[in-house]
Write a structure and sequence with these properties.
By secondary structure, the chain is of the alpha/beta class. It folds into 2 domains: 5-116, 3-Layer(aba) Sandwich (Cobalt-precorrin-4 Transmethylase, domain 1); 122-236, 2-Layer Sandwich (Methyltransferase, Cobalt-precorrin-4 Transmethylase, Domain 2), CATH 3.30.950. It has 9 helices and 10 strands. The strands form 2 sheets. A 5-stranded parallel beta sheet has the order 3-2-4-1-5, covered by helices on one side. A 5-stranded mixed beta sheet has the order 6-7-10-8-9, with helices on both faces. Strand 2 (35-38), helix 2 and strand 3 (59-62) form a beta-alpha-beta unit. The longest helix is centred in the middle third of the chain and has 18 residues, at 147-164. It is elongated and about 60 Å long. The N and C termini lie far apart (47 Å).
Length: 237
């Protein structure tokens, strides 16, 4: 760490041990940092403590969806003073479906080194295990909340998948997983393949790929076993 760098520190996808997230040499890198940019200080402190850091001595700055563009520049001040900084997501990889992307772009513009550390990505884990096209895929983020716009978007993604032989990947706020799943069954053709990946890397993880027609009557139990648990959806025609 001779030159100041922005380290992108992955976090667990759920309640798992740090050894299941970061290789040992990466843990040692993180332990050398004393300044972190985090989404939520409380959970960040718990994770960093589990990595072996003394959280009482750490400097934590917050970056979330409420952080203004004007505030971003100030978050890089430690780098300008020669101190390396860790960017920590709430779950998974920083800057992927995460507000950290803008900070990473700013670090590049400032000429600072950006170093990504190895860790879990629910999107890539789901794609790996889905059996769908891993050569050509697109992450679509969140679909519209309103049912009319959501259904229109689902049909558009299904057409795009057919035209480009492309896997479409998207996520939803956990309490809306069931409604999105049922919309997919209603909107997509019976032969369209749909993969559902829930709570990946956790003991109760579930991932299954079926056609839309095959899913009917075999729906995951979103109301009980998988209530409010993170889910990745993937479809391919």
């Amino acid at each position: 760490m001779n030159k100041p760098a922005l380290y992108l520190v992955p976090a667990p996808l759920g309640d798992t041990t740090p050894s299941g997230v970061l290789p040992a040499d990466h843990v040692e890198m993180v332990r050398k940092l004393d300044c972190f940019i985090v989404e939520e200080p409380r959970t960040a402190r718990r994770y960093l403590s589990a990595l072996g850091l003394d959280v009482r001595s750490l400097e934590l700055e917050v970056l979330n969806e409420h952080t203004s563009p004007a505030e971003l520049n100030g978050l890089l001040e430690p780098l300008r003073k020669g101190r390396s900084v860790g960017l920590l997501s709430e779950a998974g990889l920083p800057a992927v479906a995460d507000p950290g992307a803008e900070l990473v772009a700013l670090a590049h513009r400032g000429g600072f080194q950006v170093i990504p550390l190895v860790g879990p990505s629910s999107l890539m884990l789901a794609l790996m295990a889905s059996g769908l096209n891993g050569q050509k895929f697109a992450f679509q983020g969140y679909l519209p909340v309103k049912s009319g716009l959501r259904d229109k978007r689902i049909r558009a993604l299904e057409r795009q998948s057919a035209q480009e032989n492309q896997t479409q990947i998207f996520i939803e706020t956990p309490y809306r997983n069931e409604s999105l799943f049922r919309a997919l069954l209603d909107c997509c053709a019976p032969g369209t393949r749909l993969a559902v990946a829930i709570n990946l890397t956790l003991p109760d993880a579930f991932i299954c790929t079926r056609t839309v027609g095959e899913w009917k009557g075999k729906e995951p139990d979103f109301s009980a076993a998988y209530r409010k648990k993170p889910c990745v959806f993937l479809l391919q025609t």
